[in-house]
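Quick one:
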Amino acid sequence: MLGEENARERFISLLEKFIALAAVRLSDDVMARLEEMRKNEDSSLQKAIYDSYFENLKMAVELNKPCCQDTGLLQFYIKTGTAFPHLNITREVITEAVRRATKSVPLRPNAVNYFDEKNTGDNTGERSPWIDWEIADNSAEMEITLYFSGAGCSLPGQAKVFKPSDGIEAVIPFVFNAVCGPGVNACPPLLVGIGLGHNIENAAVLSKKACVRLLGTKHPHPKGAELEKRITDGLNGLGMGAQGLRGNQAVMGVHIESSARHTATIACAVNVSCYTLRRGIIRIKSDFSYELPTYNGAVL
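Output:
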């Protein structure tokens, strides 16, 4: 059995390396989707933009540097069993790993506490890095989904509560306005995350969880999957492509996550990610052996 201090250092080192990987290299599903989208564009301008994207991503890996200068604030979505033996140190380990990675990767310091109005210099601060917890039944493992939330992706975020009489169709123009307005500045093609809930709070959380879902997955309800496709087709029919210029594909996809709603509310939130969808997943066992399902062949 590992001593507590030894376990802490191994855990920090593992997550520091994982943060570096996710900052530098896009996950396999995102790269595959971007390659597919380049093939589907027919203008020389759009193909040139995608070529510059791929050159940037290639150089990031070769130079081992972040693929975007805005490394954002780090958000951790954790699914863990209560039998995971290092649960009690996970929060402090994540915070220290972010602090160290800010220097070693390096990451751009972005964390500013609201009322101090001073950059903390290490991407930690008040409730930062952000950690969302979910308990997995009968498990001694931990799955961490890391997301880099940059400003360009965060600025288009919107949320609104509709009346049931407005119907579910009311969310469609709301999503389109968010994507076609500030979303144009978020380096399309975008991944659009939509949260449907009973209040702004849980709709917003669900919209971000929709952003980190694997590309190619669908909402489990047939009507939810149908709505994802309708909105995707509609956005891709706008004539907007990479960098908001004329093209065939504005979005990599549209993901919807939903919860039960109140009889008297339809709450909707929208978040987007730019083409550098920096989302990675690591599964960690009690002995710190790990799997990287989003990075084939990667070793930390």
